[in-house]
Amino acid sequence: MVKYMPYRNIEDKRKYDREWARRKRSGQITRLTQIPSKEESHKRMLERQRKYNLNKRKYLEENYGKQCCVCHEPRIMIIHRKDGQRHKLFTNMSFKELREEVEKHKDEYVRVCGICHTGIHWAMKYLNLKWEDISTQK
Ligand SMILES: [Zn+2]
To answer: Does any domain span residue 79?
Structure first.
């Protein structure tokens, strides 16, 4: 019993096998599709990663907007939890995880720029302010 049969047609399979055997006998490479080089597969991996991160960013933009919710500048954005508690970083989450978190706790987070983020945590720590005191969204 053949577990994996790539060809529906047994004649095609036989033809392929004969070709394979012929290549093998004549010392040719038996593989028909080229194995990508290390650089090529690295490039493909980076491209996949880039697209993946882009999708995550798009999703966050759709849910939290493109601009910092404090200064409204379109800088590099960070997801901040309003109560200031530690949370798993969105950048370390898979897309699935991130989506689940947003669906469950959307209102607990805001998207702010790095500068305001530092400022928010400073104000929370040293001025003992809460998110409601800091937020410009009234
Ligand atoms: Zn900002």
So the answer is: yes
Query: What's the CA-to-centroid distance between 70 and ligand 1, angstroms?
Result: 5
66 C-alpha to center of ligand 1: Å? 11
Tell me which residue range forms the domain holding 101. 38-134
Q: What is the distance in A from the centroid of ligand 1 to the CA of 125?
A: 18
Locus of tokens 């490479």: 29
Q: How far is the CA of 79 from the centre of ligand 1 (A)?
A: 11
Q: Which residue type sits at 114?
A: G
Total tally of structural domains belonging to the chain:
1
Has residue 1 been placed in a domain? no
Residue 128 lies in a domain: yes
Q: Tens-of-pLDDT digits for all 138 residues of the chain?
A: 455 656 678 888 898 899 999 999 998 888 877 788 899 999 999 999 999 989 999 999 999 988 998 898 878 888 999 988 888 888 888 889 999 999 999 999 999 999 999 999 999 999 988 888 888 665
Q: What is 28-88 written as a DSSP string?
A: ----SSPPPPHHHHHHHHHHHHHHHHHHHHHHHHHHH-SS-TTT-----EEEEETT-----
